[in-house]
């Protein structure tokens, strides 16, 4: 943790209080959105429900959820998670400063956010192909099959290409394009960036029109060659889904992690310095081993989730590179995707509990 021993002892005693952060609260909801926390889906979500660090928020086609940021996040404003979206809200402590990050796994977000003066917090939105550096603005971002579209109704967002697998690219990269009133930005999976001009005085109408055409275009690409798009993820899914399911079994067998989760469920404190020194390597090593397969599996899971509903029935008999028909592969995906989702939830819960005991610093902060 790179601190003096005396400070470590102090931090170990108070870390749970400081870093069991409530990032926001549900301000508005429609339908039945889901929040997964500490590996479990909350039984009930209402107006006022806390949004904690590393909560996974999921909406179906008939639900949405708006989160109002809490002052402890260093931000003021809201993020709306629209229908058919999955997002992870998190905060890391980077050089003792709160760094807020919203990972958009699939779907769309609407944000209206500013930094609180004196808090020195940062905020960004990430997709599998882009990092969006937010300076205080009102904007919308949509993600589909590796492509991203960003539009601002006020201020600006710096849009940079980003490869989730390699971790290359950041919001501070000189390679980027500014989304601002009058200019939307598209980011493709290959890293290319394209500005799209629109009438800045008619943002809502323009976003509906441009994003609708953008989504239709990307969906038509899939419909025209479904086997080609699915084949890109066949070997990844066959390999990494199996690895993630195996890693999940290992994490579930980790007695220290399970004790952490049981303590969290009962609202018990994280423990002191001696506990942390003993427990840290027992969990960190399994988390690091799990992460190697987790990122490719997460990407494949949500890409296939977007692609599969667009496969025409007439194409279900087409052969893929692994020798299976698309019908067989899709059946296998549907059989195992639930197991992978549980593994993702447990992995995220493990990282959260580790961060609570490590002054808000992730075990992957140096990766």
β-strand number: 17
Biggest beta sheet summary: 17 strands, mixed
CATH architectural group of the largest domain: Sandwich
| Ends apart, CA distance between termini | 15 Å
Number of helices: 6
Uncertain segments are 1-20
User: What Rg, in angstroms, do the CA atoms define?
Assistant: 21 Å
CATH class annotation of the largest domain:
Mainly Beta
Strand percent estimate: 25-35%
**How does the overall form come out from the CA principal axes?**
globular
Fill in the CATH topology of the largest domain: Jelly Rolls
Helix and strand pattern: HEEEEEEEEEEEEEEEEEHHHHH
Mean pLDDT value = 90
Structural class call reads: alpha+beta
The helix content, as a percent range, equals: 25-40%
Number of domains: 2
Protein architecture, described:
- Helix content is 39%, strand content 30%.
- With 367 residues, it is an alpha+beta fold.
- It has two domains: 18-224, Sandwich (Jelly Rolls); 226-357, no CATH class.
- The protein has a 17-stranded mixed β-sheet that branches.
- A hairpin with a 5-residue loop joins strand 16 (183-187) and strand 17.
- Helix 2 (203-224) crosses helix 3 (226-252), helix 3 (226-252) runs antiparallel to helix 5 (273-307) and helix 5 (273-307) runs antiparallel to helix 6 (326-357).
